[in-house]
Amino acid sequence: MTPTEYEYLRKFLKDNSGLDLSAEKQYLIESRLLPLARKAGMSGIAELVQKLQGGSRQLITDVVEAMTTNETFFFRDKVPFDHFRDHIMSEIIKARAAKRSVRIWCAAGSTGQEPYSLAMCLKEMGAALTGWRVEIIATDLSQEVLEKARAGVYSQFEVQRGLPIQMLVKYFKQIGETWQINPELRAMIQHRQLNLLHDFAQLGTFDVIFCRNVLIYFDQDTKINVFNRLARQIEPDGFLVLGAAETVVGLTDTFRPIAERRGLYKPNDPRAAVTKPVLAGVAPRMAAMAGR
Fold first, then answer.
1. Which residues contact 232 (CB under 8 A, 6 or more apart)?
2. What is the pLDDT of residue 234?
3. pLDDT tens digit string along 208-260?
4. Residue extent(s) of CATH 3.40.50.150 domains in the chain
5. Stretch 176-202: mean pLDDT, rounded?
6. How far apart are the first and last CA of the chain?
7. pTM for the whole thing?
8. Rounded CA separation 109/68 (Å)
């Protein structure tokens, strides 16, 4: 791969997925895109770049999906799910007692383990949510992982990563060497394809947003842009949950951390928000989409 080809692919990936690769990540692109190029009958990266420049929509999708990291597992990191069960939902149940509904968004749902973990937490609350309308929206950039999430079928290795045995027995059915989550939990979740760089206002507002382990791949301006737009989609008394390596501190005043609850944030009064640089190219695309 020539330096020119690498720079083209770096810009392509940032513009299409938000992925911000440093100058020394050439090996990562080669390891993921060379197999894709050869599978498609191309001679190598140079030909792949030529076809991308030609505007092949399927190839654009394939390249973005090949470079997307989909590492996830049930109840990943445990602490966010403890917060969800012990703090977030206890507050939501009180605040929505009259309305009796809750909307939750998993903004990087991947192959489904995170939204299904939340669904299991909600089911475990039993009578506390009887008569409630519960809606979980799980979005991801990759159509391939969304199809796996919709099916809810996992290998023995996948269900052994973070899933308590009692939850496996209670909520899954064994099918040969795989396990499928039960239809009742699958019905609780709507899986939709979404690029966080694009406008997501059409999703409506949410009481809880999980946006974990995706913003770490974005540069600072992209993070700021996403945070400021997330703030417009969350209820004033809602909750934002980030990954352990992510924070709003030093980036935006639209959210504030909750003391002694790592990764948990509340929205601030929007009038207090600090205006930050907007990601180049995102605003024009959003404006164009809004005009459709």
1. 201, 270
2. 96
3. 999 999 998 898 999 999 999 999 999 999 999 999 889 999 999 999 999 88
4. 79-272
5. 95
6. 39
7. 0.82
8. 13
Q: Burial level of 63, CB count in 10 A (0-12/13-18/19+)?
A: buried
- Phi/psi of residue 180, nearest 5 degrees: -115, 130
Least confident of 34-48, 218-232, 269-283: 269-283
Strands 234-242, 133-140: pairing is unpaired
One-letter amino acid identity for 218? Answer: F
- Identify the architecture of domain 79-272 in CATH: 3-Layer(aba) Sandwich (3.40)
Percentage of the chain beyond pLDDT 70 is 91
Q: Around 220, how many Cα atoms within 13 Å sit in the side-chain half-sphere?
A: 6
How far apart, in whole angstroms, are the C-alpha atoms of residue 88 and residue 21? 34
Q: Which residue is associated with the tokens 């382990």?
A: 213
Pick the CATH number of 3-67 from 1.10.155, 1.10.3470, 2.40.50, 3.40.50: 1.10.155
